[in-house]
Design a protein that fits this description.
Layout: E1 17-19, E2 22-24, E3 30-34, H1 40-59, E4 66-69, H2 74-80, H3 86-95, E5 97-100, H4 114-121, E6 126-132, E7 148-154, E8 164-165, H5 170-183, E9 193-194, H6 200-216, E10 221-226, H7 232-250, E11 254-256, H8 257-262, E12 272-278, H9 279-288, E13 295-298, H10 300-313, E14 321-325, E15 330-334, H11 351-364, H12 367-382, E16 385-386, H13 388-391, E17 398-399, H14 402-412
Parallel strand pairs: 3-4, 3-5, 5-15, 7-13, 10-12, 10-13, 11-12, 16-17
Antiparallel strand pairs: 1-2, 6-7, 6-14, 8-9, 14-15
Helix pairs in contact: 1-11, 1-12, 1-14, 6-7, 9-10, 11-12, 12-14
Bound molecules: NADP nicotinamide-adenine-dinucleotide phosphate.
NADP nicotinamide-adenine-dinucleotide phosphate (NAP) is lined by residues 102-105, 115, 317-318, 333, 336-339, 348-349, 352, 389.
């Protein structure tokens, strides 16, 4: 067991366990949280009140989360001289379920992204991002309610694995020389180079998680989004491995779109349909025929783009939650960044962290609390008392602060 130097383990709580592929959640779990940089503190203050209120309302005194602050990012660096203390990673491992606000990542040098590091070190191989519309939010789409998807983005491989070399560096030169001399490929001298590793293991486990999710939630389809027409051995293989895993592990409960079109015995109406789409086509499909898609499983870079683009279709990043999930381990997080210009102004939308909490409670099996929060958000938006980002897209609405929006959500949970 880890000895914590900076964080304090709450005395009244218990650890979440993991046994035979299932979480064992006590009534008083200890959940580590990272407040986050920039606007993180404002957002966390509002969010945690919403979480506690939902638990109290759903379970009375029977259940309670014991929050444990752990440190990463600027707060960790300023107070403890370390951007990501090892004990923070250990806490996320030991307590299994945690939640974090956004963390600063310097562009083009300096420290490596803390978010990417956490995902890799803890092997949180799926980044799950549900995107749905809340009635009343301003949207650039005519029928934003038609979009209701869950993106499963591979989290540990692809170009985001961060294997790259700077232009002009001896390493880049060495790799270029090797490629040019061994494989007769053309690479312009002085190029920066990056490697895109994608494994059968990494792709299949992600796609398997996506299919299990679709089955558990009775969703109609899983679409493999890839760029396999050009990157045949990486993205193309992702698609093939996806169909393989569907056939091998879910033969009875899935059907490929191609088999469905052929009809006959293979066309089972109750099965989850496995489709695939080339990445560029996927973007236009989500704009033109969003209701034909449900779960999307995709490699890392595609997933990054599509989840933000989809979030924009339903009103923006302020309301987009995310979870990084491995086997019996999960870190839920806002999908937006630190929005530093709004730091400490009590202005920003806390919806992304609040909805990440909804995902967290669903993951823990605390669905009653999750449903109450969703009800609270729906009601807050219906009341048209919303933060600036939503207010500027909702004519006739009243702009409220981060904390006031949190109050609206709590009020909206009903009596
Ligand atoms: P950002 O922090 O997401 O902010 C960009 C803009 O998005 C904001 O100026 C604001 O738009 C809008 N926005 C973001 N969060 C919002 C919220 N909660 N409510 C309402 N509007 C919101 O992106 P960035 O400026 O590119 O990145 C800043 C820092 O965050 C960087 O260091 C980056 O590396 C880091 N980052 C961290 C994470 C993470 O921790 N998961 C993710 C992405 C980026 P308006 O200006 O139009 O109001």
């Amino acid at each position: 067991m880890t000895t914590y130097k900076f964080a304090k383990v709450p005395s009244g709580g218990n650890r979440i366990g993991y046994d035979a592929g299932a979480l064992r959640v006590p009534n008083n779990p200890i959940i580590p949280f990272v407040e986050g940089d920039g606007t993180g503190a404002d957002i966390w203050r509002a969010s945690v009140r919403v979480f506690d209120a939902a638990i109290q309302k759903a379970y009375g005194d029977e259940r309670r989360v014991h929050w444990m602050e752990v440190y990463a990012g600027e707060k960790a660096y300023t107070n403890h001289g370390d951007w990501l203390p090892q004990e923070t990673v250990d806490a996320m491992q030991e307590f299994r379920v945690s939640i974090k606000g956004p963390l600063t990542t310097p562009v083009g040098g300096g420290i490596r992204s803390l978010n990417v590091t956490l995902r890799q070190v803890l092997d949180l191989y799926a980044c799950i991002r549900p995107v749905r519309y809340f009635e009343g939010v301003g949207s650039p789409m005519r029928e934003p309610n038609k979009l209701n998807i869950v993106v499963f983005r591979e989290n540990t491989e692809d170009v985001y694995a961060g294997i790259e070399w700077k232009a002009g560096s001896p390493e880049a030169k060495k790799v270029r020389d090797f490629l040019v001399s061994s494989f007769d490929v053309e690479i312009r001298e002085g190029s920066a180079l990056g490697i895109k590793p994608m494994s059968e293991f990494g792709s299949k486990r992600l796609i398997e998680m996506a299919i299990r999710y679709a089955l558990k939630h009775c969703l109609p389809s899983v679409t493999l989004m890839h760029k396999g027409n050009i990157m045949k051995f990486t993205e193309g293989a992702f698609r093939d491995w996806g169909y393989d895993v569907a056939r091998a592990k879910f033969g009875e409960s899935t059907v490929s779109e191609a088999d469905l079109v052929k009809g006959g015995a293979a066309a089972r109406a109750d099965a989850v349909i496995i489709k695939d789409r080339i990445a560029d086509s996927m973007f236009q499909q989500l704009l033109l025929r969003p209701d034909e898609y449900s779960v999307i499983a995709t490699p890392n870079l595609n997933g990054d783009y599509v989840s933000d683009a989809a979030a924009a279709q339903v009103g923006g990043l302020g309301m987009a939650p995310g979870g990084n999930v491995g086997d019996g381990l999960a870190v839920f997080e806002a999908t937006h960044g630190t929005a530093p210009k709004y730091a400490n102004k009590d202005k920003i939308n806390p919806g992304s962290v609040i909805l990440s909490g909804v995902m967290m409670f669903e993951y823990m099996g605390w669905t009653e609390a999750a449903e109450l929060i969703v009800r609270g958000i729906e009601s807050a938006i219906r009341s048209r008392r919303v933060t600036y980002d939503l207010a500027r897209q909702m004519p006739g609405s009243t702009e409220v602060s981060t904390s006031e929006f949190g109050n609206q959500v709590i009020k909206g949970m009903g009596s």
